[in-house]
Structure formats: C-alpha cells, structure tokens
Amino acid sequence: MRGIEYVQLVASLPALGPILAAKTAPINRVRLRARLRGMLRPEHLAEIQAAADILAWPHQAVRTTDADFVRHARRVVPTLKSEALRRLVHDQLEQRTVLAALRRRHAGQDAPSAGEIWGYGRYVDPYPRKLARTGFRSRQSLKWLLPAKDKLDHEDAAGLERMLLEAAWRRAERIVGAHDFDFEAVALYVVRWDLLDRWTRYDAEVAAARFGALVADALNAVPVILKTDADLMGAVA
User: Fold this and answer.
1) What DSSP designation does 180 have?
2) What's the rounded Cα separation, in Å, for the pair 217 and 212?
3) Residue 172 burial (CB < 10 Å; 0-12/13-18/19+)?
4) pLDDT tens digits in sequence order for the chain, 237 residues long
5) Which one of 15, 72, 88, 188 has the minimum C-beta count within 10 Å?
6) Residues 101, 109 contacting (CB under 8 angstroms)
7) CA distances from 225 to 51, 214, 233, 236 (A)
8) What whole-number distance in Å separates Cα of residue 184 and Cα of residue 180?
9) Which pTM value belongs to this model?
10) DSSP annotation of 64
11) What is the separation, in whole angstroms, between the first and last Cα of the chain?
C-alpha cells in the first residue's frame, strides 16, 4: 500500500521537535543523505533533490541570475509528482518573491519593468499596483509581511531570517499532518530538517559575528602602545 510505503524509513528518522527550541539538528546531513539513498526509490530521491535545489535559492544567488532561476523553477515545479511537495515549494517561492518586492521598495528602487522576470507566482504581475497601495496586507497568507517590513525598517537581518524560517516551518507543519509513512512524509521531513538546520546554523553564525564584533571593540579600546606590542608579538610568533 502506497500510504505506508516508507514505514521503516520514517520510523528510523529522529523527531525534529519544535524549531524554536532547536540547538542542533537531531541527525547530521551525511547520515540523513545516506539513509535516504539507501531506503528511497530512485525516482523519489530525485524528486526530493529537485525540490531541495529550488529551495536553496539564497545559496544559488551567486551562481545564477533571478531570471535564470525563475525560468528553472517554472520548468521544474510543475514536474513534481507529489502535490504536497509541489504546493510547499510553490508557497515558499511566492514568499521569497513578496520579500524581494518588499526589499526592493525598502531600498527605494523602482518597480520591475514590464516583461522583467524577477519573481515567481501570483504576486509578480500585480507588483506595481498592489505593493504600492496595500503592501499585500489584505491577504491572510501574507500576515508575516508587516512584521517583515518592521524588521527591514530596523535593519534586523537576524530577526527577519528567523521570522521567515518560522513561517516556512509552520507552513510545512500544516501539510505534514496529513501524511504518516508515505513519500510525502519523507519529503516534508527533509524540507523541515533543512529549515531547522539553517535555523541552528544561522544562530551559530550570528553568535560568531557578534563575538568578532566584541573582540574588535575590545581591541579598539586597548591603548595604542599595547596594541603595538601585541602586533609585535604576533609578528614574532
């Protein structure tokens, strides 16, 4: 029976728990990938990889233009056979499109020109009209938009990233409730694992950046002669 095809695989995956309380992922990337390769059908593994590649958009920004990525997403998303996975990827890309529009307005940039390929989904065409007038506030699915604008206005990059990860996590949690041991349960686990991994790594990166800033401040507070001595000792070492 298809609905319980992956009982053994799902049962072997450690619970992810609430994202807000996560300090580290309960299974590392290498072990998770090995388990998926060993227990998923090849076509299911390929579908998860295709979805994961699209959801890695922020990491692909240095390798491709927005237009190239959007063209790729428009080709790939309709080919995903899982309705739940296709819906989740679609919603995630729409969230990023609205955020891109919000960042564009925050930076004082003009609306995209006619025919410009800049985003994905139903919020692309109405950008100039709706964003200027309401900021999409009328849509229940975009209730995160005003808090996101507030984070942007206060230059709170860390807070904005955490808020968006939370929103994506809640979206995946709503869908996963309808699946237990089927392919969708596995795919949604992988999506949520990636969100949780990004959450915990982002905390670590922010902490490291703050530590670096504290060290820099401390060095700036040291008398010049002491810093010179320290530089000399470093050169000798």
Assistant:
1) S
2) 9
3) buried
4) 457 899 999 999 999 988 988 889 999 999 999 999 999 999 999 999 999 988 885 555 555 788 888 899 999 999 999 999 999 999 999 988 888 888 888 888 887 887 888 889 888 875 545 554 444 554 556 778 888 889 888 888 888 888 888 888 988 988 887 888 999 999 999 999 999 998 888 765 665 565 455 445 445 544 444 444 444 334 333
5) 15
6) no
7) 56, 20, 12, 17
8) 8
9) 0.77
10) S
11) 67
Tokens describing residue 113: 């020109």
Q: What are φ and ψ of residue 156, in 5° steps? A: -95, 80
What are the tokens at 193? 């694992």
3-state helix, strand, coil in the chain (%, to 5): 70, 0, 30
Residue in the structure block whose two tokens are 């997403």 = 73
17: phi > 0 → left, psi -120 to 50 → alpha, else beta; which?
Answer: left
Show the tokens assigned to 92. 């995630």
